[in-house]
Amino acid sequence: MSSVQPPAAPAANNADTANQGAVGKALEITVITGMSGSGKSVALHALEDAGYYCVDNLPPELLLSFVALEQKHKAQKVAIAMDVRSASSLPLVPKQLQALRAQGLVVRPLFLDASTDTLVHRFSETRRKHPLSNRAAAASAADSAVDPQRVLVEAIELERDMLVELREQAHVIDTSILRTAQLQSYVKSIISAPASQLTLVFESFGFKRGIPLDADFVFDVRMLPNPYYEPALKQQTGQDADVIAFLQPHAEVQQMLLHIQQFLAYWLAALARDHRSYVTVAIGCTGGQHRSVYLVEQLSTAFAGQWVTLKRHRELAVS
Q1: Is 96 strand, coil or helix?
Q2: 33 conformational bin, left if phi > 0, alpha if psi -120 to 50, beta if neither
């Protein structure tokens, strides 16, 4: 799901190197795409707060010329949001991003996603019209009575199909149950990580709220001893000393931790060679409060010396 980078550009000659040194650090470009209603405006506001020059709904045909203009203005950080309103030209974007990387620019594609049920709820709450509603309604025109909710679901699924290539080449953030502040925090943590290295994202979650849509790997740890059933630990989390003391002595917990570490240690180098920018490892238990949180904390610490690591605790932030 992370972006695939092209082969490295040829080495710059002395003149190019001197010119680049005069200009300064390479322009950083964050491109935000995703499902309508998934929070792209919220993400863009987070980047604006972080010092990015932001443009919403830029037509893809203007992307390269816009970036060239910002380079002339000596810009350092720009963020661009694109959506399905530019549907006919969205297929241009993957090759455009490759072209920008070939110029030595730092490109971070982010894709915001959410479950269909969540998107339907958000559109119903705001009474906004989905940008593909007319197209979906036309496809259902043969029915004598068109169900508005059915049209909305069809529009969402049509949008998924149209954005699949962009999603596969971006770092995905599942916003289904995220609050505004949490999404802003996620976006800021992603852009703070070095873009030239693989970033390993560890995410705890509870199966009762569903598997995160942004996960590359999912590990189910519900078979491990559960601190929830200890009255003194029920309200605590896997970050608390008492819960850690409960989990650490169990051989099954340490075996699970070891197995996940071994799996990732074996495959991460191969993923990095395949030019993966981000890998999200989701650890799930029943409620996402104790076991999964503990393991994410342990794994993040274990891999921090080898890879850029980020950690998220989905359920702790929404509880």
Answers
A1: helix
A2: beta
The strands making up 199-206's β-sheet, listed across from edge to edge, are 217-220, 278-285, 199-206, 308-313
Q: Which whole-number Å values give the CA distances from 2 to 59, 70, 132, 232, 282, in the listed order? A: 23, 25, 26, 41, 15
Is the confidence at residue 90, as pLDDT, over 60? yes
**Per mean pLDDT, which range of 117-121, 140-144, 268-272, 307-311 is the poorest?**
140-144
The SS3 call for residue 16 is helix
Q: What are the distances in angstroms from CA 18 to CA 10, 11, 77?
A: 16, 13, 21
DSSP E strand boundaries for the chain: 28-34, 53-56, 77-81, 106-113, 171-174, 199-206, 217-220, 278-285, 308-313
For the question of whether the overall pTM of this predicted structure is more than 0.85, the answer is no
pLDDT, mean of residues 210-224: 96
